[in-house]
Write a sequence for this structure.
């Protein structure tokens, strides 16, 4: 029997029992759509997190006080349990390391800001002028912090857009004097509104020189030191040098942790990639269920069309032809289901993107491919048993059932 | 020239504890171009005989030679090929595929045999015209009368130009008038050279055949040819 004729015959059989066919197509399409939508969600989460991390800056190495990794037993840690703090001088010492482009010390704390008789709690970041370009912050008005000595506490500040709005409303904020903690500072710049970022919302941030922040908080420690490497390949060696330099300065004690943005990124990437895979796998179970439904539908078809199978045998159809006819029918049902499910899934992912514009819910290609392949394969696999049953029917008995 | 030669055919069925001898030591020879009616009470083995002649069933022992070829030893698929090329079936309940049009039903044996669409189309058109069904080509079986359905079935049975046409109660589901028409049609095909074997309960229809076989308990009780020739071995 020719392929075209077989497909024609199978198509007639599929449309001949519309309800039965529709149900199995629906089941298969829900399975495929589930895989597409859920992996779109998982991969969207991955892309979202990765995107947020990239927004922190490029080629960043971050030093933080305290040791988190395991480094074997060190006699020094046995005596001094509290780690040595990171100081502004520590940060400055990193500036001269080869491969380092920029360094920014970061001291963070909360304080209050007051102007125009209004007062609110804010997060204050004490940094150097290099911090703003390193973090890719952009100024809406005014200028960056002065490129001063890091130990000079110039009474100036950059404020986030929301703070500007709350304190000054429509009146100009630039050049105004405000009180931060117990200091009077002049506003020299306003940051562009950016919305929610990972961990820190710059719209509600006040940025001051690091020395000023340390004076405000009455401390000389740093929260983080941000180091920007010259290039991406230089990151590992810069990390090593930073660690080495800080160790030297802390009398050989490795009491800081130096992480690279890449490593953090890779961890999240792996984690969320695994999550996507797991979610996709769970959704794939529904494909197996759909396959069983296709098998059930085909078994019913074989029972209902026993007389017809007997006729085909009487007309000289070999077992092979009958097997292929029923397999084609099962394949057609699952192919239709897979196609419909693909469209449904993509529509679902599109809807998600419309509802949550920040969330890049695109199903990864591998997941779409795997879902379609699994759908077709399970359809065929579960079609084998009914097709074999049809091919094995005794023609005399089959013809008696009509 | 013999078309069919059956020698010592045995076919037994197991029904529960009892063994039924559907065919017991049957010997039969049918020449090419004959018109044979097989009659007998229910359970006499006439349907089994027809299934056996149509290669839908196998005997436990004995040989069946069709066109001088031993077909009892063929594999299932080889027998299917013989059915496809040499044997046509007409059933009491027509056995049309409900979702296919009359033309598609007639073309079905050619479709299964893998004959090219162009040739199929030409031969179906010929058959439709020959059986007076040209106006009904695109109708589905449920849109046809009983007589038209059986004519579609006969057209289908003969589309592969078989040597042997087997009809099992072909008029059983038809009224007297349409039944006569169908029998005329089958006899017309026989005149053109097709060997016709009809199983029937109807004595009137059986009487129209040139040779009558009456079966009882799986044996030939009466063969009109043998009695005419005075039981002489053929």
């Amino acid at each position: 029997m020719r392929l075209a004729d077989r497909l024609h015959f199978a198509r007639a059989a599929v449309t001949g029992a519309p309800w039965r066919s529709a149900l199995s197509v629906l089941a298969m399409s829900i399975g495929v759509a589930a895989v597409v939508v859920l992996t779109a969600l998982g991969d969207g989460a991955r892309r979202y997190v990765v995107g947020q991390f990239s927004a922190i800056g490029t080629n960043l190495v971050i030093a933080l006080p305290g040791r988190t990794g395991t480094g074997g037993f060190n006699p020094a840690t046995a005596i001094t349990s509290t780690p040595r703090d990171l100081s502004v001088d520590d940060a400055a010492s990193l500036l001269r390391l080869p491969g380092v482009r920029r360094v920014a010390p970061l001291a963070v704390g909360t304080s209050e800001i007051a102007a125009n008789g209004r007062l609110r709690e804010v997060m204050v970041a004490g940094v150097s002028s290099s911090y703003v370009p390193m973090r890719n912050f952009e100024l809406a008005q005014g200028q960056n912090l002065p490129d001063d000595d890091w130990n000079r506490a110039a009474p100036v500040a950059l404020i986030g857009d929301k703070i500007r709005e709350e304190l000054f409303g429509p009146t100009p904020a630039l050049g105004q004097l405000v009180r931060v903690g117990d200091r009077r500072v002049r506003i020299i710049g306003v940051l562009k509104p950016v919305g929610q970022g990972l961990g820190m919302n710059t719209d509600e941030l006040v940025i001051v020189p690091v020395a000023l922040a340390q004076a405000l908080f009455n401390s000389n420690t740093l929260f983080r030191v941000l180091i920007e490497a010259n290039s991406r390949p230089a990151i590992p060696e810069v990390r090593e040098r930073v660690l080495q330099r800080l160790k030297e300065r802390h009398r050989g004690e490795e009491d800081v942790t130096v992480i690279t943005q890449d490593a953090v990124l890779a961890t999240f990437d792996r984690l969320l990639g695994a999550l996507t895979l797991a979610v996709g796998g769970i959704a794939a179970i529904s494909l197996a269920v759909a396959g069983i439904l296709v098998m059930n539908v085909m078994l019913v078809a074989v029972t209902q069309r026993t007389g017809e199978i007997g006729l085909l045998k009487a007309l000289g159809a070999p077992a092979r032809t009958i097997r292929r006819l029923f397999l084609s029918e099962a394949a057609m049902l699952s192919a239709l289901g897979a196609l419909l499910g693909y469209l449904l899934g993509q529509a679902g992912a599109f809807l998600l993107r419309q509802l949550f514009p920040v969330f890049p819910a695109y199903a990864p290609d591998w997941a779409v491919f795997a879902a379609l392949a699994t759908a077709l394969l399970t359809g065929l696999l579960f079609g084998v048993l009914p097709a074999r049953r049809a091919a094995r029917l005794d023609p005399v008995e089959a013809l008696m059932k009509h | 020239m013999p078309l069919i030669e059956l020698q010592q055919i045995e076919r037994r069925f197991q029904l529960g504890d009892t063994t039924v001898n559907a065919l017991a030591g049957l010997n039969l020879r049918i020449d090419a171009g004959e018109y044979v009616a097989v009659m007998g009470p229910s359970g006499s083995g006439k349907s089994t005989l027809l299934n056996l002649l149509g290669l839908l069933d196998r005997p436990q022992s004995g040989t069946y030679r069709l066109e001088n070829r031993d077909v009892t030893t063929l594999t299932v698929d080889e027998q299917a090929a013989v059915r496809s090329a040499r044997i046509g079936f007409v059933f009491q309940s027509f056995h049309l595929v409900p979702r296919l049009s009359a033309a598609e039903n007639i073309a079905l044996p050619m479709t299964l045999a893998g004959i090219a669409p162009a040739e199929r189309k030409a031969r179906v058109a010929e058959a439709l015209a020959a059986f007076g069904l040209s106006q009904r080509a695109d109708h589905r079986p449920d849109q046809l009368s009983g007589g038209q359905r059986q004519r579609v079935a006969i057209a289908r049975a003969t589309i592969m130009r078989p040597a042997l046409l087997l009809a099992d109660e072909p008029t059983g589901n038809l009224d007297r008038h349409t039944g006569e028409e169908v029998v005329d049609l089958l006899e017309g095909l026989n005149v053109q050279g097709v060997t016709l074997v009809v199983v029937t309960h109807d004595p009137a229809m059986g009487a129209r055949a040139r040779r009558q076989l009456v079966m009882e308990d799986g044996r030939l009780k009466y063969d009109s040819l043998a009695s005419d020739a005075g039981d002489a071995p053929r």
User: Anything to note?
Assistant: Residues 104-221 of chain A form one domain.
